[in-house]
Design goal:
Oligomer: single chain
Distance between the termini: 35 Å
Radius of gyration: 15 Å
Shape: globular
Helix content: 55-70%
Number of helices: 4
């Protein structure tokens, strides 16, 4: 079972990841990228999405995952958003629109 620490709480990735571990989680996230490709076009997310959008969406998916909503795979959507936030911080600093980003970029 994979456990991710997030602000003092733990998130158990669904039982379907139990035997595949990290590899299965990565495959699930890759499905999210593929779904986005089919809906928005290839690599559309790389054009730049404001950082706050990743954080807002990620928090909503995390809450829905903890609440056990099953309307979509919220665990993989949460992971996708967090990966997108990290990537944006590194490769699109102009999209970093949260108050703390100036401090991070100047360090």
């Amino acid at each position: 079972e994979i456990r991710l620490s997030l602000v003092g709480s733990e998130m158990c990735i669904r039982d379907r990841y139990r035997y595949g571990g990290l590899y299965t989680a990565l495959l699930e996230v890759s499905k999210h990228y593929e779904d986005g490709c089919n809906k928005y076009g290839e690599r559309n997310w790389e054009k730049g999405i404001p950082l706050h959008c990743y954080i807002d969406s990620g928090v909503r998916h995390y809450i829905k995952f903890i609440r056990s909503d099953e309307d979509e795979p919220h665990d993989r959507a949460f992971l996708w958003n967090m990966l997108g936030a990290l990537w944006t911080q590194q490769y699109h600093p102009e999209c970093c629109d949260l108050p703390f980003t100036e401090e991070v970029q100047n360090d």
